[in-house]
Amino acid sequence: MKKRGFTLVEMLVVLFVIGLLTLLLIPNLSSQREKAIEKTDSAIIRVVEDQYQLYLLNEGGTDSGNVSEVLGDMESKDYITTDQSKAYTEAIDRAKNDGE
User: Model-level pTM greater than 0.90?
Assistant: First the structure.
């Protein structure tokens, strides 16, 4: 009984199809990653700004204009976490860089 395997042409066709699908998929994944980063940035900015409004109401403060000082004070008073503060700063930096 003769064993039947794949021919070289069949293997090349399969590799070509896999390569073509990969080329079509990679740009889509990149754009999805960028969209996810934008949505995450938008969400963290919204959360920190909402907490900032709560901070101003509860602490009776006014807008000092010094973002790092305010973020540090908000962290120390448990309005936001260190991770949120860091993510907020990175999101704002990305937004500034995208705007240039």
Answer: no
